[in-house]
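Predict both folds.
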Amino acid sequence: MKATFDLPEELYRQVKARSALEGRPVKDVVIELFQNWLGKVPPSNKESAEVEFWEGFTPPLQHLVKSEHSDSSMTEIRESIIAGYNEKA
């Protein structure tokens, strides 16, 4: 079944980013959240072992993003990367 939800933009960005780092589709995260909320244990699968590989993963351009940035909007991220790149050039 398909469902549509209105979520705060910042919350969705955070969920999307974390699910990408874990190599999981947002759909799988939502299903797991609903199962946990209902008290069911989500089924285990072979992908859970693959998630461990991504733990501690640092994106290739992470060193160019200033640590004081709390805004995770794409505009802020791009500007921070550009500024970091220009400082190193």
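Second protein follows, with its predicted structure tokens after the sequence.
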Amino acid sequence: MKLKKMLEKLGLLLDSEKRECKKTIKSLREVLKGLKQKEQKLRSELEQAADEEAKQAIQNQLDVIAAQRAKGKERLLDLRAKSQAKV
């Protein structure tokens, strides 16, 4: 009985890790989608901006968003690889 109980607990533990990983992946995808939309909006604002100072401010925001998206994509790939390894 001890082995059976231990296997059940292990199964629950592994299942919860997998669920948590999927939950994290889903939320990260939503964040990346929002960042992409914000980036597109800022790009259109950049095209319409006439003032050099405003253009520079928008470009700075775009640079930050691009860095955040790149880091998020990297993290998403890592999580997906972990998720596949656990299966």
